[in-house]
Amino acid sequence: MTRLPTRRAALGLSLAGLCAAALPTLALAQAKGPTRPATPGAGVKPGGLTPQQRDALASINRYFNAIRTMSGEFVQFGPDGDKAEGEFYMMRPGKIRFIYAKPSNLDIISDGIDVIVRNIKQQTQDLYPLSKTPLRFLLADHIDLTSEANVTSVSLEPDLISVVLEQSTVFGDGRLTMVFDRKSNDLRQWTVTDAQGYDTAVAIYNVTPNQPVDEKLFKIDRTIIR
Based on CB atoms within 10 Å of each CB, which residue in 6, 53, 107, 188 is the most buried? Predict the structure, then answer.
């Protein structure tokens, strides 16, 4: 039986974070679907980037900045091995929607200004400024991982590149780890670590970039629950 993600685990998508045990490789082959995400290896400070690391990040910058919309499926692993999944839709800058599959009642939306976390069944919602959440890095109009002041480490593996960014959020200091495919530069997963060391890992698959996405998906109704 699939456990429902806790409210705190849901916030890991956009705000704080909780832990996922790792498998030795991400191997998120598009046709096979998701596996539990891998733990990135040790990296180096950006000021000490090797030419190889700098070239790899520059390639990611070019590829990721060319993507304006993205849609696909996600699987989220929380602190106690709990798992949730669903669909996501992204429109840069600033907009993303996570639609959780049943039996979850969660709905997470960023409209470019705020991030809202809804529990449809309980008719509750929490609103946070996008600028105070880790999603601001993923949804920025332009990213430059070779000069981003918050980048604290980079790790090159045979098939993956992981980039760690430290940040302050509404929940205190935290860490965002983004993992990219080394050959294609596709974003494969991100992990949000909160100030207490709890992680939430989110892996994406069956991704379609630069296709039309309905802007109505990102509309936040600040008065009612749909």
Answer: 188
d(CA 103, CA 47): 46
Query: Alpha-carbon distance 39 to 55, whole Å?
Result: 22
Cβ-contact 14, 108 below 8 angstroms: yes
Mean pLDDT of the residues in the chain: 78
Amino acid at 174: G
- Check whether 170 has a pLDDT greater than 50: no
Pairing relationship of beta strands 124-129 and 151-156 according to DSSP bridges: unpaired
Confidence grade of residue 223 (pLDDT, cut at 50, 70, 90): confident
| 74-104 pLDDT tens trace | 999 987 778 999 999 999 999 999 999 999 9
DSSP 81: S
Q: Where are the beta strands (DSSP E) in 113-197?
A: 114-119, 124-129, 151-156, 160-169, 172-181, 187-193
Q: With contact defined as beta carbons under 8 Å apart, do 195 and 172 qualify?
A: yes
